[in-house]
Amino acid sequence: MSELSGGQSDDHASTDDARPAPSAGGNSGGGKGAFAQEVHSVTIHARQRTFYIDLKESGHGKFFKISEKSRGGQKTTIMFDAEDLDQFIDAFQQMKSQL
Fold first, then answer.
1. Secondary structure element (H or E) that encloses residue 97, with its range
2. Which helix (H) or strand (E) covers residue 95, if one does?
């Protein structure tokens, strides 16, 4: 069973937080110091992994950053624009119906 808690862990802090938001065209380059600021963060503890879901905002708009940290310390991150959230929710609902 997974544990869901709000807030941010010290393990989560990294230089990735200063990364500019992805643009609609897929170019992740930022301009004129437009770095992302955290709007909200949720941490999920699931078996031997920890997932961090962050809503961030930059000069390019809002986006989600989802990071996974395995027990061995390996970290993987994906980011997507906030306007695409409904597509991710629909995909997860389809997957859930297959369980």
1. helix 85-97
2. helix 85-97
Are the beta carbons of 20 and 34 closer than 8 angstroms? Answer: yes
DSSP helix/strand/coil, 79: strand
Task: Give the 3-state DSSP-derived string for 32-50, with helices as H, strands as E and coil as C.
Answer: CCCCCEEEEEEEEEECCEE
Tell me how many degrees the CA angle 58-78-72 measures, rounded to the nearest 5. Answer: 125
Sign of the CA dihedral running 93, 51, 29, 59? positive
Q: Is pLDDT larger for residue 29 or for residue 2?
A: 29
Distances (CA, A) of 8 to 11, 39, 66: 8, 12, 13
Q: What is the pTM of this model?
A: 0.64
Domains in the chain with CATH codes = 3-97 (3.30.2450.30)
